[in-house]
Amino acid sequence: MTQSSGIEFGKSTVPVSSSVAASSSSDVLLNNFQLKKKSYRVLLHGQRLVWERMQRPTKSAQNSNQTVKTPLPEAASAVEQQLGHSLEHNYGEHSHILHMDDIISVCRGDTKQQSLQPPQHLALEPLPEDVKPTAQFLTINYAERLTKSKSDCNRWQLRRITFYNSDPYIVRQWELQLRLRLESSPAGGQRVRRLLVFINPYGGRKAGAQTYERQVRPLFQLAGIDATCITTQRANQIRDILLTHDLSCYDAVCCVGGDGTVAEVINGLVFRRMRELGLDMQRPAYIPRPSLPVAVIPAGSTDTIVYSMHGTADVPTAAIHVLLGQRRGLDVCSVSNSRTLLRFCASVLSYGYLGDVAAESEQYRWMGTKRYEYSGVKAFISNRGYDAELHLLEEPLEPETPQSPVSVCSEPPSVCYANCARCSIASSLQEQRSSLFPTENEDEHEDAGQQEQGPIRREHAHAKLQPSVAFNHELQLSASETALLRPHPRPSSLSLQPGAASYGSDLSLRSGEQWKIIRGNFFMICGANITCACSRSPNGISRYSHLGDGCLDLILVRKTTLLNNLRFLLSTAGKGADIRNLPFVEVYRTRKFNFRTLTASQENCSISGSCQPITQSVGDGVNSEYSSWNCDGEVVTDLDVTMSSHCQLIDVFMRGPHSYSKPQKVGVRTPTTPASSSDNVYCCCKD
Description:
By secondary structure, this protein is an alpha+beta fold. The protein has 15 helices and 23 strands. The strands form four sheets. Strands 13, 14, 15, 16, 17, 18, 19, 20, 21, 22 and 23 form an eleven-stranded antiparallel sheet that branches. Strands 1-2-3-4-5 form a five-stranded antiparallel sheet, covered by helices on one side.
């Protein structure tokens, strides 16, 4: 085949590995390679890899000894380079474009089979002069989203492409440049190298270990991730390990299991951070943000957390987000009673119907996943109602601050997708509000101890004006902690603001907010932190809940007939139905709410009487007059509960679900571009 020597445009030809700083987005590599025994012109331009099949010369070109070539794209301006805007429309009609953020690994070999082996992540150093490269095959492993599938548009798959060139020096040069640009890209700095993996072999269909070995471990090995696996043998083992062991050598924590496993990891990381800062784990002055991000591999019964984050419960999709290092802030809710902080909730806290299902199913664990269906039918037929009183912070319809995330897209309600504007505004608002607090970190522990007592006195001062919201936390993040959706790398350690908001602080009520009191007899009460979607309920119980806006949806289902209950369940399972249209359902968007029963005495507000960070298993039984709380699949029996949302408290490897958009019509002059993982480059989703 006709080969071109190593050509670089935009700088003089120098050894590729002589300096990392020598590479910039304006550098260009251009060579001819073979792909499936066909000649291709391959271009490395900035953060984009472009390949196009070489066109055969026409008769007129043959007579004049000219070669038909596609012109190179114009150089991007500095502003376009910073914004990540691509110029793919200049590459050519049949060009294939791959962004660096989507590349998982690069490997070369003497044979094609050798280049398909997991790469060895060695230092980018030039070969000794007496050692000559011999590899002629270059394999690029990358991720691609199935954009053309209406039913699986949220699924990602692993793809690979192998180029051949008879000159080993060219192959070596391309490998070094690709690795160099992968490490220097914004997403490359967030990729995981050492990972702590917890595997729950008993969750869901009891296939956690098999799922990891068959579908996840090969992907981690392909990306060169050093994973330390721990198979759990008992409840709360993950929490105990996270609280006691040294985690400084790990870049992230991964869990393979269901929603309960995810909640246990989040609880362990948050309580670990509280212990590191010397905060009281029962009455903390504020909720700190963990430093380690969380990766979730679905292996449970419903996997609502994974489905809400990705729009699918596909295992390779969740693993690919870990390989690409794509992180996004996720809201976490704290659950407390009048005396202590109980635990943190990642998905839903439900009283009534779902609480009865969780409590009843504990007696039928021998049935496996069928126990939820059996307990659900029993609870549905009984159609019990529970008297309750709720106090919630009703968000104003016309707040004084028009940029408040509560008012953004409130009419009509918006669905949370990738690149969600509402969640981005919430992150920016947190950064603005953090400027109101001091930024000194040297007196962090001392100030935290002072804040621990200050909110208590303020709670007593407002006891006559507010409902019982003792020790109700609200998180205020620093400027570095709130920039969760930006493409630039985040710092390795995030400082906490000692002046962050605490329980019951005077700043917990914003201008225009007021407490709303609701009383009644309810079939179900739900505080939804996410949509709680799954394969059986694609829209979830709270379709318009967002992943990182700092709010939760309070869903109240009044006690009514069995027929109306059936309508409610069908509405949650259907794609086109909306529970907001049902007359016996009320939905409120709030930052926190307080629940108490109307018939329980003050002494019986906490049936279990547990002061543990994570509530233990249910006791001998619960009074039939009251229901239980279903908190991420675990049972909580307290009757005086406060739920508060903490905006983007933890980083999770995700982008958010995508909405299906129809592909371009045949004949449109656009390059065939894979759906990129970069937020600012090739996003084809539409809100």
